[in-house]
Design a protein that fits this description.
This protein has one domain. It is of the alpha+beta class. A 5-stranded antiparallel sheet has the order 2-1-4-5-3. The chain contains 3 helices and 5 strands; from the N terminus they run βββααββα. A hairpin with a 5-residue loop joins strand 4 and strand 5.
Length: 92
């Protein structure tokens, strides 16, 4: 098993097993996003914690945090407001 050295602070290096860390792209996919922008916003807001690799400055997430992250309930849009192509129908 290969280890990924990460930095938790500038002076504190820590080795964590690769199976525990997942890259940002995979974390976004697990949470249902096509891009990493939403999960990076969660990091800025403090909902998720990311770890940075000192080798390439990429973000990695603990797989337990991602798998236990609450998913929003799907709320269908009201059918009277949106008809076809997701655009509101114009009043005539």
């Amino acid at each position: 098993m290969q280890f990924i050295p990460i930095m938790t602070s500038r002076n504190n290096k820590q080795s964590i097993k690769e199976s525990e860390l997942i890259p940002a792209g995979l974390a976004a996919h697990i949470l249902g996003f096509k891009q990493t922008t939403p999960i990076m916003k969660y990091v800025k807001k403090g909902y998720l914690s990311a770890r940075t690799s000192h080798q390439n400055n990429r973000k990695y997430f603990d797989s337990k945090d991602i798998l236990n992250f609450p998913k929003p309930l799907p709320i269908p849009p009201p059918s009277d407001k949106f008809k076809g192509h997701g655009r509101p129908e114009k009043e005539r």
